[in-house]
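Morning!

As promised:
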Amino acid sequence: MSDSQLETFLARIYVDRAARAKFLADPHGEAIRAGLTPEQIESVVQIDREGLELFAASLERKKQGGK
Amino acid sequence: MRDRFGLGWRHKLALGILSHLDRIDIVEVIADDYFRAPHRERRALRTLAAQTPITLHGVTLGLASSVAVDAKRLDQMARLCEEVRPVSWSEHLAFVRGGGIEIGHLAAPPRSAATIEGAVGNLRRARAIVGVAPQVENVATLIEPAGSDRDEATWVSEIIRHSESDLLLDLHNLHANALNFNFDPVDYIERIPPERIGAIHLAGGRWVGLPNAQRLLDDHLHDVPDPVYQLLEEVGARVPHPLTVILERDGNFPPIEWLLDQLDRARSAVARGRARQRAEAA
C-alpha cells in the first residue's frame, strides 16, 4: 500500500466523527480494513488518542466558524 | 537589507495597517484569499503592494504530502505572484487533504522518509511553476502524527537540506509543539542551519482539553507570550542575515497600537539577539 493511503486514513479519522468512533473502538480492525501496511497499522494502533480528540474537536470548531 | 517587521493583512486590521505604514515594514497576505477574488480585490492588493513590501502566504497547497501537489493550485499562486510581485512567498509543511477528503486545516503529516521525499518533490514543482521557491513553515499540531519515525527538527531539517526552500520558522508553533510534546525549543532552533531560517512568524494561543491533559492550541487570537519573544532572541543571536518577522492575528482584534507594541517587542528581541551575536563574534 502507498504512503498516500495512510494520509487518507488519517484525514478520514480527523474529520469524520463516525469513522473516528469506529476506529477508536477497533483500531487494528479498521486499519486492516483500510488496507494499511503492517508498519502503518502498528503506528495507527498506537495513535495519540488524546491528541486525536483534541485535533478533531478543533477542526469541528473551525468548521463552525470558530477557532 | 535590514530586519523587517510586519503584520498579517486582515480586513479588520486594514485601516490600522494603512494608517501606520511608518511602523510596519512588510505585510503578509493570505494568497488563497485572492486566487478567485474579484478583479477589484486583486487591484486593491496591487495597490497595497505598491505602497509596502508584501509577502504571500499559502494555506491550502498541502506541500508536505506523499501526494503530488495540484498543478492548478500552483498555477494560481504563480499568477498571483506575477501580478503583485511579492518579496517572497511561503507555504506550510502540512498536508491538508487525503484521498479527496479535505481536512479543513493544516495537519502535521507523518514524519517519515515518504513525506520528506514528497515534500521535496512538491517544493521542486512549486519552484518550477511559480519561478521562486517558497519558504516553508513548521506547523503547530495538537496530535503527534501517526506514522512518524523521526522528531520534528530532524524532519524539517531534512526537507530544508534537500530543497531550495528556506524555513519560515513559526515560533509560536514551535513553542506549542515543544510544550505539547515535551522537547526543548532552543535545541530545535540549534538544529536548523541558521543560514536557512528566512522568516519568522509570531502568534499566540490558548490551552485546550481537560484540566489534567491540556495542550496549547495555536489560535492566532491571543497575544504573543513571553517565551516566544525569548525564542526570537535566540534566533536573532544565531541568524547572520536580515530576517522578516510577521505577527499573525486572526481575530479577537485589539487596537492596532497594541499589535504595534508587540512588533516593537519583537524588534527589541531581535536586537538583543543581534547584540549577543556581535558580542560572541568580538
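The CA atoms of residues 74 and 129 of chain B lie 6 Å apart.

Hope this helps with the figure draft.
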